[in-house]
Amino acid sequence: MRKVEKVYAYITSEDQLLVFKHVNFHEAGIQVPGGTLDAGETPKAAVLREAGEETGLRDLVVEKYLGRDECIESRSNQTGIMVRYFFHLTCPSEVPETWQHHEHHPSDGSPGPILFEFYWLPLAEAAKVMDNYFSVMLDRLPGAMSR
Fold first, then answer.
1. Which of 24-28, 32-36, 108-112, 128-132 is modeled with the greatest confidence?
2. CA distances from 34 to 1, 18, 47, 77 (A)
């Protein structure tokens, strides 16, 4: 059975979580930055790379590793195990309220660039509007933010 490892970034500013929508694929829903680990890459290095590629932010800081989970993934008539690593990140520089950014090399192999629209949501609201696939460890953020 194949194994895929992914990372997800919960980027916060005070009680706000950075989320995005696919500009041309609204059916993808509200997501947080993330993607697939490259061969030999650590989860921490991967989350910084993926979050930077997707958001355009270059001075992100990993505050805390929140945990991992495993789930069964079925895609293109193949079933495998997906291991997901979740991290809490912050950005020390000033970040706009909203912006758009192109990801030029999507980790899912789809042709790029893909246009994302980023904005901030209160943590309590984010948990209500994001699919559980992305929000599985949001409940660990309040403790992570009160270090």
1. 32-36
2. 23, 12, 7, 23
